[in-house]
Amino acid sequence: MNKKWRILVAGAVLATAIVAPTVEASTYTVQKGDTLTKIAKAHNTTIQQLRQWNSLKTDSIFIQQKLVVSKVSNEEVSKPTVPVPPNLVETSEKTTTHKVVKGDALAKIAKQYNTTVANIKLWNALKSNNIYIGQSLIVAKTTVKPKPNDNKEESQVTGEEIPAAEVEGVVDFVPTEISEADKVIASQLASEQIITYVPTTTGQAKYNNVITLAKELIGIPYAYAGNTVAGFDCSGFINYVYAASDVKILRKSSLNYFLQDTTQVQDPLPGDIVFFKNTYIPNISHMGIYIGNNEFIHAGTRGIEISKLDYSYWAERFVAFKRFNEIR
Length: 328
Known about the structure:
This protein has ten helices and twelve strands. It is of the alpha+beta class. The strands form four sheets. It has a six-stranded antiparallel sheet with strand order 7-12-8-9-10-11. Helices cover 29% and strands 22% of the residues. The relative contact order is 0.11. The N and C termini lie far apart (104 Å). A hairpin with a 6-residue loop joins strand 8 (273-277) and strand 9 (284-292).
């Protein structure tokens, strides 16, 4: 064999050695009652991977549909498998809708579905309370995630809240299903007669004092359980400025203020209270004072500051605008 042929043969052998690995695909035929979540779990894969392998644009599937449920290359067969961390399990979101009929109003619909006017406006990108007959509204959103197969008990956290830093992308607590806390929150809001009137001249004067004093305190540091100018936590700050403005309230946690001392308002005014949940526990865990223009002032981790309600961190945790029952 001459030198030229030796080179050609060697090249052919090398090409064979580096040819792309072959891929084997396993398929599954969809049965009655199947969902992508169920199929993904049964075949140790993810919904996202099923969508990619089968070019699915949505989660809709049909009986007798053949789905690729795994792809294994001969190169991967010898590789050890790496378990997927539990926090990377795929989740899916279910929505409930309501068709507007004659006589409906956002407040009425919110009460019917145990939610808030603010949630409905957020889910449907509504700029006002105006709705029309025949309009389809999202009235509930539920994120469904398989429960981890362990015996860990939920930790019970008591005492005053320490709100999370307002940092884009930071998630301290993300509920994956309707919790008992969410049910309590929804039940409380549903039991309240939503306030539609504006405060009296006396009430508005108190609100003016509240906002003026609150802004004067900007920059005072955060202090756990603090309720003096040396440092405030969120409910300590609320107690201080409202009590100083002749609103007779006791020192309580934000959860207790939510459950015992306030009522939901249809159209918030500067001076009303804004409540949040899931800042570090799955319950009402933070509060602030609405000051208009979609802003509120509160005791954050950086101290007394003004934040925007449409900032993603707060928008995702917003619960309701409420008013102290002492304000008339």
